[in-house]
Amino acid sequence: MSDSWIVQNLLNALNTWNEKLSEIWQLLTQSPEEFKGGAIWDVIVAVHGALRAIGLALLVLFFVVGVMRTAGNFAEVKKPEHALKLFIRFVLAKGVVTYGLELMMALFRIVQGIISTAMNAAGFGSVQQMILPQEIVEAVEDCGFFESIPLWAVTLIGGLFITVLSFVMIMSVYGRFFKLYLYAAIAPVPLSTFAGAPSQSVGKSFIKSYAAVCLEGAVIVLACIIFSVFAASPPVADPDAAAVSMVWSYVGELVFNMLILVGTIKMADRVVREMMGL
Questions:
Q1: Which of 19, 27, 22, 1 is nearest to 163 (CA)?
Q2: Are 28 and 223 in contact (CB under 8 A)?
Q3: Who wins on pLDDT, 77 or 172?
Q4: What do you get for the CA distance between the two ends of the chain, in Å?
């Protein structure tokens, strides 16, 4: 490694970025059961089990309210075809509440299949690492003390931007996992609304919102794949330019590309929701 503080500062910032990007790539291939060794998932399963009893009680309530609002009179309820329809609705709603967690994880695995397919189709087993061109390292090392002063400012600001963007990016991906856990924990309550025709729209919205959170992973993967193509062809350093201009041009283009990636990851939720009409 170079002895120059300027080079070391840039390398440290790029290493932080590469580490967070690799962590994101790993997180997107994990399921909630595997995240952090499964300790969080055990808590979520316990909360889900506790709320399942409440969900079943609400299921009966929504079913009764639905029957009262949809049936014109008691004689209509006694009709075999109408009674069978109500019975099937109640059984299906009870099954959704009872096995809601399994159904949600099945949906998550379907989306994970989409993510794996996108990775394999793009031919990326891992994200491309950002590297500092050798031309910049040599140009910085050849600078004298006074020439390096503006470089300190450029690399300090650029390194700070890269580091901050790294943590903003990883926080967005961690936020997706937190939303998955929240949806899984509270699922029995909104799923119980399927028992009544007037209230089933709540359950449908919940499923669509959960599917949107799952699909955020696909949008993030596509954004990382596109960025990896950019990373494979890093900004070209002009060997004839001054060291300050060379570093400024390189850092500026790098930060710009990183901003696009972070912005896409931050907007993944909005993009998916617009696609699903939410």
A1: 19
A2: no
A3: 172
A4: 50
Per-residue confidence band for 235, with pLDDT thresholds at 50, 70 and 90: low
**Crossing angle of helices 39-70 and 80-98, rounded to 10°:** 160
What's at 239, amino acid-wise?
A: P
| Cα angle 159, 162, 164; round to 5 | 105
Structural domain range at position 13 = 5-275
**Model pLDDT, residue 44:** 92
Residue 80 region, left (φ>0) first, then alpha (ψ -120 to 50), else beta? alpha
Question: How confident is the model at residue 45, as a pLDDT?
Answer: 92
CA neighbor of 247 nearest in space, from 6, 13, 8: 6
Give all strands (DSSP E) within the chain, no chain letters: none
The DSSP result for 4-45, as a single string, is -HHHHHHHHHHHHHHHHHHHHHHHTT--TTTGGGGHHHHHHH
Q: How far apart are CA 248 and CA 250, in angstroms?
A: 5
**Where are the alpha helices (H) located in 187-242, listed in sequence order?**
188-191, 200-232
d(C-alpha 252, C-alpha 258), whole Å: 10
Q: Which residues, 6+ apart, have CB-to-CB distance to 67 below 8 Å?
A: 77, 86, 196
Average pLDDT rounded to a whole number, residues 20-26 = 80
Q: Please state the domain count of the chain.
A: 1
Report for 15-24, 72-81, 173-182, 238-247: range of highest mean pLDDT: 173-182
- Reference 132, options 230, 21, 19, 251; nearest CA is 251
- Give percent above pLDDT 70 in the chain: 79
- Tokens 């929240």 belong to 182
